[in-house]
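Letters spell out the chain; backbone shape is given numerically. Take this protein:
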Amino acid sequence: MTSTNYADIEVKSGFRTKPARRPLSVAAAALLAVLAVATPGPATAQHPPAEAFKETTTVTATAYNSLEGQGAGNDHSVAAWGDTLVPGMKAIAVSRDLIGAGLDYGTPVRIEGLDGVWYVRDKMHSRWQNKIDIYMGEDLDAARDWGRRRVVIHWGEE
């Protein structure tokens, strides 16, 4: 078995080049997956109904995975804000215009048609407008089944 010194590899992300992250061990990735499913996001301790959110809009929603060929760089599980995405997380990426509307990092979001509360953990390229991307782990079939659709989202707890 050979080992690779990942500290010497650089990953291009956007316009900056930064050192690559060391890959997670299988045990660490499994722990993160359990914690992502078992614990609420930072902004809320419960899952409020959609009516509890003060902001609502309709967006185009697509789905993405942490598979090779999706995303920049060698580690396809690292989001734009530096989070490591693991299957089971309820994470979304948002277009940058939505960040300005209050859907910033860590914001809890209800997506009509999906269960639970999702959290903003990633941001999309600036070419996209009024769009979210729903993280579906490594389930390529689920992402393809989702396709592209218009959905109503709710955020901004009262």
